Amino acid sequence: xxxxxxxxxxxxxxxxxxxxxxxxxxxxxxxxxxxxxxxxxxxxxxxxxxxxxxxxxxxxxxxxxxxxxxxxxxxxxxxxxxxxxxxxxxxxxxxxxxxxxxxxxxxxxxxxxxxxxxxxxxxxxxxxxxxxxxxxxxxxxxxxxxxxxxxxxxxxxxxxxxxxxxxxxxxxxxxxxxxxxxxxxxxxxxxxxxxxxxxxxxx
Length: 203
Hints:
By secondary structure, the protein is an alpha+beta fold. 29% of the residues lie in helices and 21% in strands.
């Protein structure tokens, strides 16, 4: 776990983590391992498909494709399931500038898929982050006094009030309420975060 999530877990604090956080991290690590094994199987699957087609009887059976020999093929995501373009490009820019919070590495394959499938779209604010970087809102937009954006959160409970700062302008701060239905480690696009009634948008 420490090697799989550098910066997220340490040997000194591992036993203090909640069981739900560890469970979610294990599931994420298993998915990352599956993706790595899938990359390794591509060459072998291609060779199998070529050998099948060389030796097949043209009057029997269909032409094989590489996908016929992939055991760990990922499910294709619908367009609506992709990370929004503004979020994807904000994450890529932040990583290029070495500002990307480590929690967002967990969705990096989805970030790349979202950036490839959609045209570039820039957000006015790139990200709001908590001081511990365990709650991040990427490409936030304002709906009255509330904030909507791509939410990445780890270890916070529903109803917690968390102070966020703009990643590019640290003195610009906002307080948001963690919404209901949040898992121990949670990623979701288009989440509406409520702010205290007396908080107005700052520019």
